[in-house]
Design goal:
The protein has ten helices and 64 strands. The protein is mainly β. Among the domains are: 184 residues, no CATH class; 167 residues, no CATH class. It has a 64-stranded mixed β-sheet that branches. 21% of the residues are buried.
Length: 1089
């Protein structure tokens, strides 16, 4: 609206609007131009007078705060001001001097603000008051408001210092510092700092020549020192503590108020002494945080050595957390952590008396234990490590109260000492004492596992309890369930407790003796038991004899039962003795009457009964005499083992033995016995035996027979005849019987087989291996001499036999399983069906004891003659149990055809006929005649047929045999008639029948093979053949059909011989010569007999 009225006025006055606007703009330019000119004049005057203005302002401020100061203002600019030669405080001893300082300010709409300060040659002096906790810098304190409750605040400026020094006086000593650095004070100021303290002292402790050279960092107003601190020496007189060449390298921090500190440092010490203890070359690290009242710490000692009168340590380790309280009485330290030592060596003075103990324990059961413990302890004490946990409190005026647990000491030799529970250790002045019982356990490194509870009583006396787990050395062992003792080192000790002891005695050993311990030891001798005692033991052994699990009442037999001094003597009476144990590792139980025992002599007992072995060997003998030097002897001993269904036993007429290296040796005679289910009886045994380490070895001769057979002459059932073993080696080890032997036929002393037998008494199982090589049957050694099974089956057996057998038995599985493989490569024999030559066969027995084979056994035969010779035959058969033979079939090539046997079973267990059917197929008559060397006789034709045979006790015979020709054939004689005394008609007839053709021929046979055979020959369609003389008569009858029926009653072989001799007198002469030669040989044999 103002604008509208103005325009209206302008219109009424007659002025145009553009003219009025131009006048106003002109006036505004003049006004602003004049103001700017005046401001420029004022600024120019202020700049020209800036130094005077600044001096006036500074003088007014110094006068206002009452500060003594001098300075020179060299430059005052819009941005930078420079002042030189600043002195604040007493000029003679100023609190602050600065060579020069430059200050940068910044101008903004709020005014001027201090931005950066650069100073050189700054020297500042200060003092720290412990009571008020304040830091003072003399005249500079006047610039602060004494009534201000605000904490000290670091200004928000940038600072660049060079050659700045601080001298700070504290209650503990003078500290000097030098600093060069730059940065923003409230963000990050960084520089190099050097600190020096010639002497720092707190109560009775002092540090000489402390120094720091490192970096100073003001990180968001929090001071931080990074670098190494060193000290020439540290000493606390009242605590007898001193250290040298200490070095601390780390990071030390203060808070913004400078009343709390923090740090992480690593440190090293060339040496540290605590009374009579010394640490060398210690290194470690520590973290701390606290204030002047309390500082918490977490420290680690990573290495260093330690020396004292008791121990030298090559390496130290410590990890502790705790706090230090700073009070008027000094520093109180509370720490909790763990400590460790390595490569430690115990002083030799702590092992005195061990050698004397070893010497005095000789000839006692503990001698091997002491002999091992003494060098083991010496070795263990020469190099060991240890760790423990502690909770300790050390007061300024002396005294230590610590609780220690987790002690774990380990030597390089394997010894380990472990603490159980917690123990209190107290120290006052130079006296150390156990405030509570110490419980330790010792183990490893050939040391006995021992638990010790030890408590210090008045003066130098001690009391405690010891428990020792079973500990063994040199065959001895010791266990002490509980033993209480009291005594003073170097004087008499008394003890009362229990122990379990094993160890050597005179020519023997005691094992697991549980005995009360009540006695005394004065450092040289000991004595046990002046009255009867109840003792129990696991075993007592002399040589290999062990008595087991027995509680005995032992009474002295003159003096104490056990005495030392000039040797150890053990002598006692044992009434009503019964004991159990072992001999050579096998279980042994025995009972007898009263035994008189002397460790140096032996014992005597009557009515002995004993069991031996895990599968117990039971022994009984009426009297047993035992002498440690001579051994034992007894008669009529029965030894048995196993169960009733698999009993192994021996009955020995005389048995004696004596000591041998590691056991016994002796002889036995008249022993008979049997091994479990093995069907073999051993008789007439005699030989030598040894018993070493529980293993029995017997070398003896004996006879063996079939334990299940009947050797009756009338009705024998044995599977083999009695055989002899001249030298058997039998061993018994770990419940297993092993035997090696060669078996002989007793009459001819021929080796029959090799035997390898093994029987496990524990499981009742075993096996026997038999091997036969180069056994040859002759007229002097026949199968009947080995087994009656072949009797009546074969005779005149000659030839080799080889084979092997395996017999396995057990008590809960298949019983007895016997297999084998036996054969011959060329055997001749006579059987019921005729002589056999060149027999080759191998039998695979599936049940050897039952003489049973698998099917398909094959026999190859060069020749067999059941009446007619057959060559190169093959017979398939099997042996069945019960002395039966199943003939599965057989074939022979014969006279251009084939002979075959029909399947049959022969049963030799009963006296009954046995049948055999021989089939003839395609025999050529010409080849058949050629077998008999009928050189002048010729025939043609092919025959088939069947020859049933029956064999019994009278021999073999053909029953209903039949040969039938296929079609026709011819029979002719070639050559001259040899019998010249025939009449004319006979010669005429022979010439007419010299050659006969036939159209059918049938031969029926029956009778004994070894006797008369009735042969019926039927010819059909007969006529003259080629080569026969024809005449008037033959021509008249040649077309007439003719049948010849011929009956021959004679031995088949005699018949053939008769026919041949008719035409061949040379054959007759050869036969007679052979008979004469045979008669002469029989006559010579009878004369030689």
């Amino acid at each position: 609206m103002a604008d509208l009225s103005t325009e209206a006025e302008a219109d009424q006055s007659g002025f145009a609007p553009s003219q009025a606007t131009g006048k106003r703009r002109l006036w505004l330019r003049w006004i602003f131009g004049l103001a700017a000119l005046l401001l420029i004049l004022l600024l120019a005057i202020a700049y020209w007078q800036r130094i005077n203005i600044a001096e006036n302002i500074a003088r007014d401020q110094i006068k206002k705060y009452g500060v003594r100061a001098s300075y020179q203002i060299k430059e005052i600019g819009l941005r930078t001001q420079r002042i030189e030669n600043i002195i604040i405080g007493d000029p003679a001893n100023p609190d602050l001097t600065v060579q020069w300082v430059e200050v940068d300010v910044s101008l903004n709409f709020s005014g001027a603000a201090l931005r950066d300060v650069r100073a050189n040659g700054v020297k500042l002096k200060g003092r720290y008051d412990e009571k008020s906790g304040k830091l003072s810098f003399g005249e500079l304190d006047k610039f602060s408001d004494p009534n201000s409750k605000e904490p000290f605040a670091i200004p928000d400026i940038g600072l660049d210092l060079s050659d700045a020094q601080l001298s700070l006086a504290t209650p503990w000593g003078l500290i000097g510092a030098g600093l060069d650095g730059e940065g923003l004070l409230r963000q990050r100021f960084e520089g190099n700092l050097a600190l020096r303290a010639p002497l720092l002292q707190y109560q009775d402790c002092r540090i000489d020549k402390a120094a720091f050279d490192g970096r100073y960092l003001l990180d968001f107003r929090r001071p931080n020192l990074i670098g190494p601190w060193t000290a020439q020496k540290l000493r606390c007189d009242n605590r007898d503590v001193s250290a040298s060449l200490a070095k601390i390298d780390g990071d030390l921090r203060l808070n913004a108020k400078f009343d709390r500190w923090y740090g992480d440092v690593s440190y090293s010490l060339a040496g540290l002494s605590l009374a009579d203890q010394e640490f060398v070359q210690a290194i470690g690290k520590m973290s701390f945080a606290g204030s002047k009242e309390r500082t918490n710490f977490d420290a680690e000692l990573l290495g260093g050595g330690y020396r004292s009168a008791a121990i030298n340590v090559g390496n130290l380790g410590l990890s502790a957390k705790g706090h230090m309280d700073f009070g008027g009485d000094g520093i109180a330290i509370t720490a909790k952590g763990d400590a460790g030592i390595g490569r430690a060596v115990l002083s030799a003075s702590y092992l005195t008396g061990m050698n004397a103990l070893a010497e005095n324990s000789r000839s006692t059961p503990v001698a091997p234990l002491i002999a091992q413990i003494v060098p083991t302890m010496k070795k263990g004490a020469s190099d060991f490590d240890a760790r423990l946990r502690f909770d300790a409190d050390m007061r300024p005026k002396g005294g230590l109260n610590a609780f220690i647990d987790g002690l774990d000491l380990r030597s390089r030799s394997g010894i380990r000492l472990v603490q159980s529970g917690m123990v209190q250790v107290q120290q006052n002045d130079t006296q150390w004492r156990l405030g509570s019982p110490l419980r330790l356990s010792l183990s490893g490194g050939n040391m006995p596992t021992t638990r010790i509870a030890l408590q210090q009583t008045a003066g130098r006396s001690w009391s405690g309890n010891i428990a020792v787990d079973p500990y063994a050395a040199g065959g001895a062992s010791l266990a002490v369930p509980a033993l209480a003792f009291t005594g003073t080192p170097g004087r008499t000790w008394t003890f009362n407790g229990k122990a379990k002891l094993s160890g050597p005695i005179a020519q023997g050993f005691v094992d697991g003796v549980n005995l009360p311990l009540n006695g005394r030891y004065d450092g040289e001798r000991f004595a046990l038991y002046d009255s009867c005692q109840m003792l129990s033991f696991d075993r007592i052994r002399y040589n290999q004899l062990i008595l087991s699990k027995q509680a005995l009442r032992l009474c002295p037999d003159g003096g104490s039962i056990v005495q030392s001094g000039g040797g150890t003597r053990v002598r006692a009476l044992l009434p009503g003795f019964a004991a159990s144990g072992s001999y050579g590792g096998q279980r042994f139980n025995t009972s007898t009457g009263t035994v008189r025992f002397d460790l140096a002599k032996g014992f005597q007992a009557a009515n002995l009964r004993a069991e031996y072995g895990d599968n117990p060997v039971r022994l009984s003998a009426p009297v047993l005499r035992f002498n440690f030097d001579k051994g034992f002897d007894t008669q009529n001993v029965r030894v048995e083992t196993g169960t009733s269904d698999a009993l192994t036993y021996f009955e020995i007429a005389t048995l004696n033995g004596s000591f041998a290296p590691g056991g016994f040796r002796g002889t036995l005679n008249g022993a008979n016995g049997k091994i479990a289910n093995v069907p073999v009886m051993m008789t007439n045994s005699a030989g030598d035996w040894t018993l070493v380490g529980g293993d029995i070895a017997l070398q003896a001769q004996l006879d063996i027979s079939d334990s299940e057979g009947n050797y009756d002459q009338i009705n024998p059932t044995q599977r083999f005849e009695k055989l002899n073993i001249p030298n058997a080696l039998v061993t018994f080890e770990d419940g297993i019987i092993n035997a090696l032997a060669d078996i002989y036929e007793p009459v001819t002393a021929t080796k029959i087989a090799e035997l390898d037998l093994r029987h496990d008494l524990n499981g009742g199982n075993g096996r026997a291996l038999l091997a036969t090589e180069n056994l040859v049957f002759t007229e002097n050694l026949t199968p009947e001499m080995l087994t009656p099974v072949t009797r009546g089956i074969v005779q005149n057996v000659t030839g080799p036999v080889y084979g092997d057998a395996r017999i396995i038995w057990d008590t809960d599985g298949d019983g007895i399983v016997s297999t084998g493989r036996f054969g011959t490569s060329a055997m001749d024999l006579s059987a019921a069906f005729g002589p056999v030559r060149g027999l080759k066969t191998e039998l695979l027995f599936t049940d050897l004891l039952a003489l049973e084979t698998a099917s398909g056994q094959v026999a190859r035969i060069d020749s067999v003659n059941p009446g007619v010779a057959a060559l190169d035959g093959i017979v398939r058969y099997r042996l069945l149990s019960g002395r039966r033979v199943e003939i599965e079939g057989g074939k022979w090539p014969f006279a251009g055809g084939e002979l075959s046997i029909e399947p049959t079973i022969w049963d030799f267990s009963v006296d009954r006929p046995r049948n055999l059917v021989l089939n003839v197929n395609g025999i050529e008559v010409s080849k058949f005649i050629d077998q008999f060397d009928f050189n002048n006789l010729s025939a043609t034709g092919i025959f088939d047929g069947r020859l049933p045979m029956v064999f019994d006790e009278t021999g073999g015979r053909i029953v209903g045999g039949e040969l039938i020709a296929r079609g026709g054939g011819n029979i002719s004689y070639i050559g001259d008639l040899t019998y010249m005394d025939l009449n004319a008609y006979a010669n005429f007839a022979f010439d007419a029948l010299r050659s006969i053709d036939y159209s059918g021929l049938r031969i029926e046979m029956g009778g004994n093979l070894g006797g008369e055979i009735i042969t019926n020959i039927k010819f059909d369609g007969i006529k003259q053949g080629d080569g026969a003389k024809r005449n008037f008569i033959t021509r008249q009858i040649e077309n007439i059909p003719i049948r010849f029926n011929i009956r021959i009653e004679a031995s088949f072989f005699e018949l053939m011989s008769l026919v041949r001799s008719t035409y061949d007198p040379q054959f007759l002469a050869q036969k007679n010569i052979q008979q004469i030669r045979a008669q002469q040989e029989e006559l010579l044999r009878s004369k030689n007999k």
